[in-house]
Amino acid sequence: MKKSAIAAVALLALLFVVDSSPVSAQRLYWTTSGMFGPFDIKGLIPTYPDSRQITIPISMWVLDHPKGLVVIDTGNNAAVSDGNCKSHWVAGLCDFLKPNQKRDDVIDRQLQKLGYSVDKVKVVITSHSHLDHIGNIEMFPKAIHVIQKKELYQAWWPEKFQRGGAHVIKDYDDARDFNYLELDGDYDLFGDGTVVVLSTPGHTLGNQSVKVKLPQTGTVIISQDAIWMKENLEGHPAGLNYSVLDYSKSLERLKMIRDLENGQLFMPHDEGQYKEKGGKWYR
Ligand SMILES: [Zn+2]
User: Fold this and answer.
1) For residue 164, what pLDDT is reported?
2) What whole-number distance in Å separates Cα of residue 253 and Cα of residue 265?
């Protein structure tokens, strides 16, 4: 074979390799439904030794997968935008959390910014039924909604000690007849191991997390409220739990999965981690 022919074959082979890699593979975007704060970290983690003002993200995720577009959590309800919190949430939570959400931060606009529309979303995974995670579920009437069956019980009839306003029933009362894939444990979403829903109860009765395998980044664990922030990893439990025992087991479980798979743990309300790693695609 002539040298030029060899070069051409080599070039073709290279193009094939480049072409066949991440084009059809999944990619993941980390965004936020505005911010909460500033407030004292002890308001969320009472056992934390030092007072410190924090301003935290309300993490949502967009996963573009060859088998369909996925949204993980839908943030604060759009009605909470632009200083209108008290029209939608109880006043005490507005005063404590201080949501700073612009209308453009809401999931429908976030999808638009990334080049998608709400109609194209095939799956909505809701980690749990608190107001900063389930807020805009009603924007997705055509999607399949993936949630733990127990969390649906929780959403509709929280225990008395949970009725401080974190469950806003009007966020989901018109979503009652949506298509729910009601889970009882872990679930391999597309049947290929790339997106696995992990049951991580404790923060709420049916909290769940998501493990995503990406072609270049590797394993990413989206803890959602199984682990709020790095201080929880350092041994200071969250101050809001359905069951502290289950919370501790779920936290340990996610740490071990991270270590076994050499993965990264992305935490939904970690100020520093979002500053460093939020607002971008992971491939
Ligand atoms: Zn949360």
Assistant:
1) 86
2) 12
Q: Tell me the CA distances in angstroms from 130 to 142, 163, 263, 276, 283, one per residue in order.
A: 22, 11, 27, 25, 29
pLDDT, tens only, 39-54: 999 999 999 999 999 9
Between the CA of 127 and the centroid of ligand 1 the distance, in Å, is 9
Report the distance separating Cα 268 and Cα 254, nearest Å. Answer: 14
The token duo for 140 is 């997705």
Q: What is the pTM of this model?
A: 0.91
Domains and CATH numbers, the chain: 25-282 (3.60.15.10)
Using the mean position of ligand 1's atoms as its centre, give its distance from the Cα of residue 203 in Å.
9
Centroid of ligand 1 to alpha carbon of 115 (angstroms) = 26
User: Which of 269, 281, 264 has the alpha carbon at shortest distance from 221?
Assistant: 264
